[in-house]
Amino acid sequence: MTSRTPRTPRGFTLIELMVGTVTTTIILAAVALTVLAVQGSYQTESRIQVAVEGSRTAISFLEQRLRLASYGVDPRFAFDFGTDALDSHVKSNEVIALGDDVPVSVTDDLALRYRDPAWLRRGSLDGTRLLLEDGDVFDTAFPEGQRFILACKGSGNSVVLRLGAGGLSKGSSETSNFTVDETLSTSRRSEACLSKRDSTMPMVLLLHEVRVRIVDLNGRPFLMAFSTLENLDPAKAVPLAADVESFQVAYLMNRPQPDSAFRMAPAVDASSNPANWVLGDVGSAETERMPNPGAVPVPRFGTSYDDASRYNAHPANIRAVRVSVTVRSTNPELRGRRGFLRVNLEDSLEQAAEDGYYRTTLTTTVRAPNMMSRSAFIPDLSRSDEPEQSNRLVWGG
Question: pLDDT digit string (tens) for 86-121?
């Protein structure tokens, strides 16, 4: 029997090695590109998600506060259009430059007032003092600038008191640290009903003020909510959303019904095409971008709903507010993609640019039902159901 020598396995040729290497490289490259594509898509979606969440938070806050506008406050004073507290003195379309290679932000200014629905005391003026009902105290400290409404029971007479430096300490039953804000008051300090200490003692009501606008914080535009209209200190404000590129406000004014005798009254925004009853929308001239506190005649509590003064540009005739917020991604796309183009909101005249940022815009219109009030909303504190009890009733802190 003849034995055979085992055959030695044939080695790979150079061509086979090269083909294998190329094939492996192609597979690895495909895997790497897939991973990069998934990672890029994830980063893109993350940028968009952050922008959407920021705009939703801001819109939610604005909707809550706008529904409260003018609650327990004379509609003439519910919205504020003064610019003394603004460094730029620009109320509409202020341009905020944030540095090189960063798009500017454009902001309107929204300022409103409402009475705290959960805070109520009884008190009166005693000379230079605000004196609470016997046995009652302020259970919360209040800062400088805080305003209170002292309203006579059963009438529209009221004065607004502003706390001075040092504010008001917790546990106090009286204070002389205030001045009368005559611009927001409906009567004089000397009104007899404001000093009564009997069953018709006036009510002490807490007045809230809110201002919303974009602020530059270390090179990033934040939409901020301030708890006062006088001080724009960011340290005392609440951030609503970061990287806000545009904040726009339009005011929907009262317009005559088809059966009204004033149905042919000239529209308050004559520069829009066609002319309309919205101040601050596309086409609004600079003088028609916001209500005019100096408009006459002035609608008051007792003015008929179908009166000529109800159809001019006075702030008391605001019936709804439309707010728009654009939030962009914190950083632009790095691979040369164009992202989402900038949107021109209302009358802001913003310019679209392919700068790689991702953007989201939310718009909402909020009706302000309290602006229709024809009487001062002053709650009655008498307790006729319990005649043996004191009239004293306290709400809130």
Answer: 989 999 999 999 988 889 999 999 999 999 988 999
Task: Indicate if the pLDDT at residue 269 is higher than 70.
Answer: yes
Please state whether the peptide bond connecting residue 297 to the residue before it is cis, i.e. omega within 30 degrees of 0. Answer: yes
Tell me the pLDDT tens digit for each residue of 30-79.
887 777 666 666 555 555 555 566 678 889 999 999 999 999 999 999 99
CA 63 to chain centre: 8
User: What tokens were used for 243?
Assistant: 């990287």
The pLDDT tens digits for 136-187 are 999 999 999 999 999 998 777 899 999 999 999 999 999 999 999 999 998 9
Token pair recorded at residue 176: 């002389």
What secondary structure does DSSP assign to 257-284, as a single string? -TTSTTTTSPPSBTTSSS-BSEETSTT-
HSE-up of 108 (CA within 13 Å, CB side)? 26
Give the whole-angstrom CA distance, residue 284 versus residue 93: 12
Is the CA virtual torsion 181, 378, 397, 392 positive or negative? positive
What is d(CA 320, CA 262) in angstroms, rounded to the nearest whole number? Answer: 20
Burial of residue 266 (CB within 10 Å: 0-12, 13-18, 19+) is exposed
CA 8 from chain center: how many Å? 84
Residues 133, 155, 195: CA angle, nearest 5 degrees: 35
CA-CA distance, 204 to 182, in Å (whole number)? 17
